[in-house]
Design brief:
The complex is a heterotrimer of chains A (285), B (282) and C (226).
Chain A: H1 9-14, H2 18-34, H3 45-55, E1 62-68, H4 74-90, E2 95-99, H5 104-120, E3 128-133, H6 138-146, H7 148-152, E4 176-183, H8 188-200, E5 204-208, H9 217-221, E6 228-230, H10 231-241, H11 247-279
Parallel strand pairs in A: 1-2, 1-4, 2-3, 4-5, 5-6
Helix pairs in contact in A: 2-11, 3-10, 4-5, 4-10, 6-8, 10-11
Chain B: H1 2-10, H2 17-41, H3 44-67, H4 80-95, H5 98-114, H6 120-142, H7 155-190, H8 196-211, H9 214-219, H10 234-269
Helix pairs in contact in B: 5-6, 6-7, 8-10
Chain C: H1 4-19, H2 27-63, H3 71-77, H4 88-121, H5 140-157, H6 166-217, H7 219-222
Helix pairs in contact in C: 1-2, 1-6, 5-6
Classes of the chains: A alpha/beta (285), B mainly alpha (282), C mainly alpha (226).
């Protein structure tokens, strides 16, 4: 049985067919992608914290970029990873990519790293490496804290990590200068904080999807995280800082108008609700 | 340590390939004998005790190593050297659980296919996709291509890239991008300000939504950044809401979760928990 | 073989195929869903073998002749007895091992995670030298008071086992009500961020469709600076 057709003005305001809402959203996004109104992006304090943390890593230590994300959050975490990689290369810091879950992240991140490496003339195994997907969550971290080559085993290409040039002298967690957690999954940060940052004082920075970011502000406040990228906004800010405007900057241009649309729709729905309540009709789904 | 020396005596590496296969076979046979013996000898009560014992020892090992006093340089106790090998062993054992989910999928789709249920062609597509990714994923890996890979690649690598970057990643990204439409529609239809709390929630949402995007900064860019009124710039206001209003509330939630998780962990460690898994009859 | 063109078209067709569900449920979107699940299952097996088992289990066992690694799949295979009613207890045995490990690991993590959080709650509530005035109205001292009040009221909201009766209970009830209001602010902030995240995902896909796919057919799209 289909819903009754809207009759009053308040009904019509509250029951715009969903396909029109979809078309409106798609239209706004396409309009801004094709004819962008570019507005400046200013790095926020949490984003500066990430950049400063990367720059502060001693030259003889490695940076771990954990790419615990997959294509479902790629629009946010992909540009975040790319911006962090650029920050590492520009500051001449060696880094490794790894992933605890899901497996797809290391391949997507490797593609990003290879693309950036060509720009900076970086060599795999010397300037950066990919430890791959490691199953085991906390067990991997506890093993890494004591013996990284044993805990990691082979890299993304099947070569024992101990044989890579940039792994010379890397034995345990003391050789790590910073861990940047790029993730769309909850509970990853807590593992790293509890097993690596807390006991061994290894600096941590986070890059999260916008959904998760509010949850991790307390970790910024307690200095357990040195900095944080908040979704595509954080990625755009870091892209601006490393002077490599990319997909995230374009996304944020579009976000402005998409948010205006969402706010307008919410206000419209509430306007209809107010009209209906004034008439004593109540809200319509 | 005497225990590690004992283990090295009991489990030395096999001297020859033939000895290796003999040891492997003996280990498999011996393990089966032990499992069958445990199953025959232990009644329901004995099995519950064994499960509780294993659970307790596993938790005790990791917990005790953290809390037991350390000494020396590097600081460690009698359990510290065991953390790494035990953790590595657990990661390998856990990796064998990959088949659990795969088996369920194969069972469901296999049944659809064999019994020709409606939509069986979708199950056929599932099997073809699984098989293709398995074959070409393994094939690509064992090609051991040089790094960086050349522009023109062997065809198995090409097929693998089509499956991964052409299908797998875009399908996942597209599926999750549908949420944008659903949240727009849901926000329009369901976000109604019926109470003061809802109004507060909406106000906070609007401030954060506009403050996080460039248009928010542009709308209030007329307020000088170094003036006392800079607080009312939308990007500053949004950051203030997140930093000073959201943070303590989230911390309160974190503490609630922490206490609950600690209680739950204690109950599981001591096998006090009851439920589908815990209260079986043996 | 240069797979780039095939990748481009496969990705575009897959994306548009999934988007057909926005109109209504249809066989095309269902087919692509099943293909996605199949690819995901296949990739999980590939990644588990190539990135974990081969290096950490197979090579030490076969090439280094460390035969005791055979116990790993034997112990791991106990999980599969979950499908057997008679032997299901063996699966619970191995699950008990992992549950115990998780509990022990949580005990290890508890203090490193939460003690800095507790420590950070104790913000100075009296004016101290060096605090500085950051604005006419909103200075650090006021911020600290706001922080502590919100934290305490939110925590009081979660004291469900204390009835809101009697003098203490009624005051607790008022505090809990205030905490609920502050929680609404936090949820509003989360909602705002959620909207931003979800829309980012769609924008990312549209960037691909417009710049990469349509841009390869009609150069104008590729010049739009997407």
């Amino acid at each position: 049985m289909s819903a009754p057709r809207p009759t009053t003005v308040s009904d019509r305001i509250q029951q715009i067919p969903r396909h029109y809402v979809y078309l409106l959203l798609a239209g706004v996004v396409v309009w801004q992608l094709l004819f962008p109104i570019r507005l400046p992006i200013t790095p926020s304090v949490p984003t500066r914290g990430v950049y400063d943390a990367v720059a502060a890593v001693p030259d003889d230590k490695l940076i771990i970029i954990t790419t615990d994300w997959d294509a479902s959050t790629q629009a946010e975490t992909g540009p975040q990873t790319q911006a962090v990689i650029h920050a590492c290369f520009q500051n001449h810091k060696k880094f490794v990519i790894m992933n605890l879950q899901p497996p797809m992240g290391v391949k997507l991140a490797q593609d990003l790293a290879e693309e950036a490496a060509q720009e900076y003339g970086a060599v795999y195994g010397v300037d950066y490496a990919n430890w791959g997907y490691k199953y085991g969550y906390e067990n991997v971290l506890m093993a890494m804290a004591k013996n990284i080559p044993n805990a990691i085993g082979d890299d993304f290409y099947g070569k024992p990590v101990g044989e890579l040039p940039l792994m010379q002298g890397v034995e345990d967690i003391q050789a790590i200068g910073l861990v940047v957690i790029v993730t769309g999954l909850s509970a990853m940060t807590e593992m790293w904080v509890g097993l690596i940052q807390g006991p061994y004082r290894t600096p941590l920075a986070g890059a999260y999807t916008a959904v998760m970011a509010p949850i991790y502000y307390p970790y910024l406040d307690s200095d357990q995280l040195k900095g944080m990228l908040v979704g595509a906004k954080g990625a755009a800010e870091l892209e601006a800082m490393v002077d490599r405007p990319g997909k995230a900057v374009a996304i944020m241009n579009v976000q402005s108008w998409a948010h205006v649309l969402i706010i307008a729709l919410i206000l419209l729905g509430n306007l209809g609700y107010l009209f209906a309540r004034g008439r004593g009709e109540g809200s319509q789904p | 340590m005497w225990f590690s020396r004992l283990l090295q005596r009991l489990f030395p590496p096999a001297p020859t390939p033939a000895a290796l296969y003999l040891y492997l076979a003996l280990a498999v046979v011996g393990s089966i004998v032990i499992i069958v013996a445990l199953h025959r000898l232990l009644g329901p009560r004995g099995r519950r005790w064994l499960i509780a014992f294993v659970t307790f020892i596993a938790g005790l090992f990791f917990g005790l190593e953290y809390f037991y006093p350390v000494h020396g340089d590097p600081a460690k106790n009698f359990l510290t050297d065991w953390i790494e090998p035990v953790s590595v062993m657990l990661t390998v054992v856990g990796a064998f659980t990959v088949g659990l989910g795969i088996y369920s999928l194969l069972q469901v789709h296999g049944r659809n296919l064999v019994q020709r249920r409606p939509g069986w062609h979708n199950s056929l597509a599932f099997f073809l996709a699984t098989f293709a990714m398995l074959v070409f994923g393994m094939w690509e890996y064992y090609l051991h291509l040089p790094q960086p890979p050349p522009a023109v690649v062997p065809w198995p690598k090409g097929i693998y890239e089509i499956l991964f970057n052409g299908l797998f990643a875009p399908l996942q990204a597209a599926t999750f991008s549908l949420l944008a439409f659903y949240i727009a529609s849901a926000a329009y239809r369901a976000f109604r300000v019926r109470t003061g709390e809802a109004a507060l929630m909406m106000a906070a949402a609007f401030i954060v939504m506009i403050g996080q995007v460039p248009i928010g900064a542009w709308l209030t860019s007329f307020i000088p950044a170094d003036s006392p009124a800079a607080f009312f710039r939308l990007e500053m206001l949004g950051e203030w809401v997140l930093r000073w209003l959201n943070t303590p509330a989230q911390r309160g939630i974190i503490f609630g979760i922490a206490v609950g998780a600690l209680a739950m962990s204690l109950r599981i460690w001591l096998s006090l928990e009851r439920g589908t898994f815990f209260s079986e009859k043996g | 073989m240069n797979p780039d063109l095939y990748i481009l078209w496969a990705a575009a067709i897959a994306t548009l195929g999934v988007y057909t569900i926005l109109y209504r449920e249809n066989p095309i979107s269902r087919l692509f869903e099943h293909i996605f699940v199949g690819l995901s299952a296949g990739y999980l097996i590939v990644a588990t073998w190539t990135l974990n088992l081969e290096g950490k289990w197979w090579n030490p066992m076969i090439h280094d002749k460390k035969w005791y690694w055979i116990f790993a799949p034997i112990v791991g295979s106990l999980f599969y007895f979950i499908y057997s009613r008679r032997l299901g207890w063996l699966a619970r045995l191995i699950m008990g091992l992992f549950f115990g490990t998780a509990a022990g690991t949580f005990f290890r993590q508890f203090f490193p995670i939460y003690s800095p959080q507790i420590y950070a709650c104790f913000k100075p509530l009296d004016y101290q030298a060096g605090m500085g005035i950051q604005g006419v109205i909103f200075d650090l001292l006021l911020h600290n008071w706001i922080f502590v009040i919100i934290l305490l009221t939110v925590m009081s909201y979660f004291f469900f086992s204390i009835p809101h009766e009697g003098r203490f209970g009624r005051n607790l009830g008022r505090s809990a009500m205030l905490g609920r209001w502050f929680l609404m602010i936090a949820f509003g902030a989360m909602f705002g961020n959620t909207v931003m995240a979800r829309i980012s995902l769609f924008i990312g896909r549209m960037q691909f469709l417009l710049k990469d796919w349509l841009g390869s057919l009609i150069p104008w799209f590729a010049t739009r600076g997407l």
